[in-house]
Amino acid sequence: MSPQPAVPPAPPGTRVSLAVNGAPHTVTVDNRTSLLDLLREHLGLTGSKKGCDAGACGTCTVLVDGRRVNSCLVLAVRLTGAEVTTVEGLADGERLHPLQQAFIDQEAFGCGFCTPGQLMSGVACVQEGHAGSPREIREWMTGNLCRCGCYGGIVRAIEQAAEAGART
Ligand code: FES
Ligand code: FES
Questions:
Q1: Residue 116: which domain range?
Q2: Which of 82, 65, 62 is nearest to 122 (CA)?
Q3: Is residue 131 part of a domain?
Q4: Whose CA is nearest to atom 2 of ligand 2?
Q5: Which pTM does this prediction carry?
Q6: pLDDT, tens digit (0-9, with 9 covering 90-100), for 58-99
């Protein structure tokens, strides 16, 4: 009888306790798990999208302790105690966040794939005080790509939200 192939050992795991959109979660993840995969694969929050998985497109943008990050580049095991906000946490029940409403008003999306990342980055852009002019908004939104080319509408939407004093 030929020997059975060796079963590779399970990768090491680590418990992570963090808050996502105000709700506490404790999960055990493979040490290589990104925040994006934690959100999508472990918590079922699929609003954050995986475009490049390499920090180049911004579709995975979320807020960690109020600062925007590319969640595909952040290791989940580093986030114990963190407060994470995703696109699912923007609306207040049925009431859209002012930037979500502005995206509708300004027709700031085509296919919608980049939109969750644009929204999270746009919210941060306003909160950081980087939405003073269309030029400034363009500068501070350069990490978020839109293959549908909706940049004009996105800038107008962020201007609208900034005028309304939008915050998370
Ligand atoms: Fe994270 Fe593209 S999926 S930057
Ligand atoms: Fe299609 Fe931005 S709306 S990629």
A1: 98-163
A2: 62
A3: yes
A4: 146
A5: 0.92
A6: 999 999 999 999 999 999 999 999 999 999 999 999 999 999
